[in-house]
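Input chain follows. Return structure tokens only.
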Amino acid sequence: MHRYRSHTCEALRKSDVGGTARLSGWVHRVRDHGGVLFIDLRDHYGVTQVVADPDSPAFATAESLRGEWVVRIDGEVKARSDDTVNPNLPTGEIEVFAREIEVLSAADELPLPVFGEPDYPEDIRLKYRFLDLRRDSLHANIVARSAIIADMRARMVDAGFTEFQTPILTASSPEGARDFLVPSRIHPGRFYALPQAPQQFKQLIMMSGFDRYFQIAPCFRDEDPRADRLPGEFYQLDLEMSFVEQDDVLGAMEPVLRGTFAAFADGKPVTETFPRIPYAEAMRKYGTDKPDLRNPVVMESVTEHFAGSGFKVFAGMIEKDPKVEVWAVPAKGGGSRAFCDRMNSWAQGEGQPGLGYIFWRTEGETLAGAGPVAKNIGPERTEAMRTQLGLDDGDAVFFVAGDPKKFAAFAGEARDRVGRELGLIDEERFELCWIVDFPMYEWDEEAKRIDFSHNPFSMPEGGLEGLENTDPLELNAYQYDLVCNGYEIASGAIRNHRPEVMEKAFEIAGYDKATLEDRFGGMYRAFHYGAPPHGGMAAGIDRIVMLLRGAKNLREVTMFPMNQQAQDLLMGAPGEVTSAQLRDLNLRVLPTKKDGG
């Protein structure tokens, strides 16, 4: 028999009754039932119940066991009685009567519990991550993550993609965030950078004559903490294709990603065919380019009902500025003054002056709008608005007014709030959609200049002619995002592959040719030697796993994450290095002001 085990803790079944087994694992918990000890033994695969009664030669050792001790147990497999079968365990029909127990490793008093799912301080959990990972939910999440990645990889290969690896040590080339820099010992004063993404390399792979590349790529960004992104590093399904247009990329990737979602959705419905929503439409209907389509609330413009009306606040704004619009946020089932007042208070808490509203109720045999707004615009306009929005008795509508570019995000938050408060969101489904036709440029108010709004390597609609003959702030690009349940889970574009188009695109954003050659020289040079039309995207693996597992945050689906201050509390990173190491790299650390420097 093997030194440590003949079976895993998930393997034994009723067919094994009468035989002997050797198991090794962690003591999950010990229960004393009238002098008979029941030990739940756990390993990577599952749990088996072990019994030690006073007649067993292993009983004395069993009495000494504590949680998380590592033990080897030999014993006889017996059937449980009908009333003690545990249907929640694969091994629930059997138990092992211990004949010999060997303690392989004792455990000190635990700094955090492993049994159950306690709400424990995150810093303790991260410092002792190896213990935290023993908990059922985290262990299952990490195993599921591996299965999800394997599923993606298999689907990509089946779709004709080939996996290639790109460098980890590369040149600094800012793509919107700070690089992590690595000093070179051989070249004093020079630095490598960890890649923010394999963007340039995957395009160079296309220019090298390969096609349909993908990899499960680590990405590194020295960013300030964000709730929806892991600090330091994350993983993405990265891909690129040659001789394609936008429809080809979306058509290739939709079945891959839908297939992965369907395989791990645990029976929840997944969108069959992903709708394609232009960016401008998404902003107008949902107030965001990451709409949660489980929420049925769709915003509409109701500007005409307020123009020239008795509601002087909105009417005056509309008359004064042609950019002003009034958007309606319908709220089916929200037609009570108490709910409307709660929404108004929430808006004020968000720094807004408030939310105007109308709610409808039946008085006698008449359905009428109530509230100050309805009173000021009159019954005819109120009824016209109700008809437009499809509202009825017991429903309400909230209003946001001004320049849509300034209030769209708040309107989207109000839509989300209405959906959550009224229970309109179906939590038991995955709703996916493509957001397309992103603007190529945006106005940087702080720098007072035009800048790229998304990926600078994207092909503008119309190519060079589009750049030369269209107002930059009206020009769209062949860029697209994939959104699921309000989260962006993938982003991509058809690339600009012609040097003259790249020069003009960067010129509009304020970059001269010399800067272009200096910052993106490798790819820019490659464009001069026959670059195929190409495009691709990257899907965020961490976020996809989080959604599929129903986890609360990304750290619940990552093996060894940092905390929100970008610290690895388990390994003590970032840490200090010795003077000798610094000398080897021709570096010295300057004191900060906090240090008294």
